[in-house]
Specification:
Blueprint lengths: L9 E2 L1 H9 L1 H9 L7 H4 L8 H18 L7 H11 L21 H21 L6 E3 L9 H6 L2 E2 L5 E2 L5 E5 L2 E8 L8 H15 L3 E8 L4 E6 L5 H16 L24 H10 L12
Helix pairs in contact: 1-2, 4-5, 4-6, 5-6, 8-9
């Protein structure tokens, strides 16, 4: 199946966001004939593995396991065991905890601290979670093959482009759908485009209208719900197409240096490497947004 898919024509919210954040990084990641082929190997290098990414994946996967279990087993105590099962390194699947550098941790104390934060996030999740929703869509619990979720949702946007993405949870709300997206970042600025994009993707795959979507911010337990019933699907499609056409029409992929340079796989190849290296030295871990597009 994988060989038949033309990934170059598939756009997701994170792919579109990367272009907006830094066109040069986008070019390295998706278009450059040399560097784009290096990204999977670069991701495996210890200095490109980040503890916040390990935390985010583990929390999301624990929530997925929570909803894969039967309702009577959806307890706060069970979430602890699901977190243990989800505490994995994406580059060394067989590595047993502690993950150390393969989870982005410099010391055992740091890993314990981040694990404790993951438990707190899951506690906030449980405090506001829908315990028995009517589930329309849930990601696979076979985390090593999660790419199949992305592959299974690929939808044609037009003759030249496809779209796809990864839902955290889609539940039925009467005859309509409610998209739920869990956030582990401290930033609660709302990227409503992501939810509107998901409205198009969900309606195409599940043949039901999406009337609302929610962000669940696990650091605070806050939730933001958005009414999407009045959003016209065709208008959103047009907006997505315009973003894609803007990328395709770009000839000079400029560098937008900033705090996120610290987490870019390609910072040592950047044409503004000296400026980027200075920024990296000045940026601390508290400056990032957990929801990086790379």
């Amino acid at each position: 199946m994988d060989k038949k898919i033309d990934y170059s024509k598939i756009y997701s919210p994170s792919r579109l966001k990367m272009f907006e954040q830094c066109p040069k990084s986008y070019h390295f990641y998706y278009l450059d004939p040399v560097y784009s082929k290096m990204k999977n190997e670069l991701k495996k290098l210890p200095h490109n593995i980040w503890s916040f990414h390990t935390l985010g994946k583990a929390v999301h996967n624990a929530i997925t396991l929570f909803y894969h279990s039967l309702p009577p087993a959806r307890t706060k105590e069970a979430l602890k065991s699901y977190l243990q099962e989800s505490w994995q390194s994406e580059v060394r699947w067989n590595k047993k905890p502690p993950l150390g550098q393969w989870g982005g941790f410099k010391t055992l104390e740091e890993e314990r601290e981040v694990y404790g934060e993951a438990l707190r996030l899951l506690g906030n999740f449980f405090g506001s979670a829908m315990l028995e929703p009517e589930i329309e869509y849930l990601p696979t619990n076979d985390f090593q093959r999660s790419i199949k979720d992305y592959q299974g949702l690929i939808t044609s946007l037009d003759e030249k482009s496809d779209i796809s993405g990864k839902f955290d949870l889609v539940v039925r709300d009467g005859d309509a759908l409610h998209i739920v997206d869990f956030k582990t970042s401290k930033n609660e600025d709302s990227d409503q485009f992501q939810l509107r994009f998901y409205k198009v993707l969900a309606e195409a795959n599940f043949n039901k209208p999406v009337k609302k979507a929610s962000f669940c911010f696990l650091k605070t337990g806050n939730q933001k719900e958005f009414d999407l019933e009045s959003e016209k699907t065709e208008a959103i499609k047009k907006e997505i197409q315009e973003k894609i056409e803007r990328i395709k029409a770009t000839e000079n992929f400029e560098t937008k240096s900033g705090k996120l340079c610290r987490f870019c796989l390609f910072q040592t190849f950047c044409p503004e490497k000296e400026k980027v290296q200075k920024l990296v030295k000045e940026t601390s871990a508290v400056d990032y947004s957990d929801d990086l597009p790379f």
